[in-house]
């Protein structure tokens, strides 16, 4: 296929060629960035919480004085554990996808943040909570009765804790975290074990790795650990057990207030937490489909116009020996050149758009592999869009040339 005649024809239609190339460039920039955003949001939606979500629910009460915490905990735990079908009821300060209650910065140095590790979620948990959550221990040991310490303020002054694999790899890369010390202000912590996954309460506020920077802290019930109860039942019974627990609260502890919004199964908490992200993914995919549809219609319209305009020229080429395949390949090559020019311009626009998004949102750089993927998609779209008009052009009979003489 001779490229020079095609380029010469395009030069005679500079404005139309430039407009369709710009449209393809915009489509390329939007496609790459929208797919990048969709992939990031979808990855976060699918984050592994590390807990047995299908069997867990959380029930939260408030409205009681701190000095009533021990009494309220005792009455609530006794009443909740008596509900038919309830496998366990334990105390926890926060659960994945629920309200965040204990985020703080930690450091390798005592009483200093010069060697900061990062901001982590401290999850305070009473006896039995580790087993109820279904966490997977991959290194070290589980909390023993002596590991549970009172927390009169934020957390115990000195505690043996479990950390997630993600936090351990960040804080002590290439080393075993067991026995390692870290501090949060004056509070000292020592790692006794590592769990595979444990998502923090609000993971989408952080990047994928930071979404699992969690410290599981054994705490004696009371003080900072009161009012939030982790319920466990079989997956078939967990919804019914939660409803029974909600209904039983006025009888168990009439002096507390049930937090309706934060008393749900963990499955419902996850669905509610990521509802906005799912809506955003739908909107982004809608924009991508609309942009690609408009681009395809533009290519079809322009090619159809050129086919009608060149009907006599096509007839002459057929009369002097050009086959249908030659005509078809001519328009496909012409489209490929226009789309390639648009893609080259679109790659530059994609980085500009990504820089704008990075300025207003906490986004990383657009990975380079999105560019060839976007280019392949637009080349395929261009060839599909041009196929109909090109086939009509190839069907023009040679007699058209003689009729026009």
UniProtKB/TrEMBL annotation:
Designated name of the protein: ABC transporter permease
Keyword set, alphabetical order: Cell membrane, Membrane, Transmembrane, Transmembrane helix
Species, as recorded: Rhodanobacter humi
Entries under PANTHER family matching the protein: ABC TRANSPORTER PERMEASE YTRF, MEMBRANE COMPONENT OF TRANSPORTER-RELATED
Every ABC3 transporter permease C-terminal domain range: 287-397
The keyword Transmembrane helix appears for this protein: yes
InterPro entries attached to this UniProt entry: ABC3_permease_C (IPR003838), Macrolide_Exporter_MacB (IPR050250)
Family note: Belongs to the ABC-4 integral membrane protein family.
Topology term for the membrane: Multi-pass membrane protein
Bilayer-spanning residue ranges: 279-308, 336-357, 369-387
Subcellular location(s) of the protein: Cell membrane
Top-level taxon: Bacteria
């Amino acid at each position: 296929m001779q490229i020079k005649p095609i380029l010469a024809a395009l030069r005679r239609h500079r404005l139309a060629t430039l407009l369709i190339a710009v449209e393809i460039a915009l489509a390329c920039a939007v496609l790459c960035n929208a797919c990048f955003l969709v992939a990031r949001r979808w990855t976060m939606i699918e984050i592994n919480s590390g807990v047995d979500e299908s069997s867990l629910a959380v029930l939260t009460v408030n409205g009681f004085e701190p000095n009533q915490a021990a009494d309220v905990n005792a009455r609530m735990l006794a009443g909740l554990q008596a509900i038919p079908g309830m496998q366990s009821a334990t105390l926890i300060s926060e659960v994945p996808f629920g309200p965040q209650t204990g985020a703080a910065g930690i450091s390798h140095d005592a009483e200093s943040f010069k060697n900061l590790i990062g901001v982590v979620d401290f999850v305070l948990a009473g006896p039995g909570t580790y087993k109820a959550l279904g966490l997977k221990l991959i290194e070290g040991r589980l909390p023993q009765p002596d590991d549970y310490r009172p927390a009169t303020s934020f957390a115990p002054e000195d505690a043996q804790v479990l950390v997630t694999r993600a936090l351990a790899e960040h804080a002590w890369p290439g080393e075993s975290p067991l026995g390692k010390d870290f501090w949060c202000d004056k509070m000292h912590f020592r790692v006794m074990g590592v769990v595979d996954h444990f998502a923090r309460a609000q993971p989408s506020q952080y990047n994928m790795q930071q979404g699992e920077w969690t410290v599981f802290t054994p705490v004696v019930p009371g003080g900072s650990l009161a009012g939030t109860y982790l319920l466990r039942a079989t997956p078939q019974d967990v919804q019914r057990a939660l409803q029974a627990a909600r209904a039983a609260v006025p009888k168990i502890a009439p002096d507390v207030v049930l937090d309706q919004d934060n008393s749900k199964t963990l499955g419902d908490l996850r669905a509610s937490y990521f509802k906005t992200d799912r809506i955003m993914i739908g909107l982004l995919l809608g924009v991508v489909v609309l942009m690609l549809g408009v681009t395809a219609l533009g290519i079809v319209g322009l090619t159809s116009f050129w086919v009608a305009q060149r009907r006599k020229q096509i007839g002459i080429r057929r009369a002097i020996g050009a086959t249908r395949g030659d005509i078809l390949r001519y328009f496909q090559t012409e489209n490929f050149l226009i789309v390639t020019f648009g893609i080259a311009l679109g790659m530059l626009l994609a980085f500009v758009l990504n820089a704008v998004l990075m300025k207003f949102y906490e986004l990383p750089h657009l990975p380079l592999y999105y560019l060839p993927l976007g280019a392949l998609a637009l080349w395929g779209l261009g060839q599909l869009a041009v196929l109909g008009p090109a086939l009509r052009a190839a069907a023009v009979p040679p007699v058209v040339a003689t009729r026009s003489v």
